[in-house]
Amino acid sequence: MSKDAILGAIRRGLRRGPLPADQAAMLEGRLATHPRHLIPARSRIPRPDQIALFIRNVEKEFGTVARVDGPEAVPGAVADWLAGQNLPPRFVMAPHPDLLALPWSDRPMLTFEARRGEGSDTVSVQHGWAAVAETGTLLFPSDPTRPTTLNLLPESEIVVLRASRIVGAYEEAWDLLRAERQDAETGGFMPRNLMFVTGPSRSADIEQTLELGAHGPRRLHVVLVEDDPAAR
């Protein structure tokens, strides 16, 4: 059913016709200008403090973070984390150009396949599009080079994130999305799916007992690439 058909059905149910021109113009203007609501002061801090806030919030939500000086250090950080978790040195990886360009040959013991996730995968390496400091949340717009299944199926997820992609508040993340994406068919900016991930999957539905990995990865590890001079 098209958007116009859905909205038409709602109008008929409310016994209301199209909006008057002045009201329609007011609503269109509000949608076009993206007005800001109240932004928490905790995210309005100097850049190094924003990065530190992001790390604290990831760790508060049972995730872990390793900081590396540049992309060339990512394979070593992945290998070290896998060894520290007593996991085999193999994984499935998002077929993103940034990840494919990393010097994986420096760590010949690591083996991987660049593809979407499957139910039998144990570890994924995902490309982090952006993150929000105020809650420690990672954002993953769906994309052929960033398969959503990598966020859901493997028991352990490693996310490679550039420090320059950490913003203070959610409003700034939406600004990035609008600025960087435009669908050629619809003219809109929204991907098919936009996943917000704050720590590993967990649930306390049964007897209020926290269980990690309830409906997604049990472990979440962020490899944070220091590419933002202002954040040091």
From TrEMBL:
Signal peptide: none annotated. It comes from the Bacteria. Residues 130-225 form the LUD domain. Gene3D superfamilies: NagB/RpiA/CoA transferase-like. Pfam families: LUD_dom (PF02589). InterPro entries: FTHF_cligase-like_sf, LUD_dom, NagB/RpiA_transferase-like. This is L-lactate dehydrogenase complex protein LldG. It comes from Humitalea rosea.
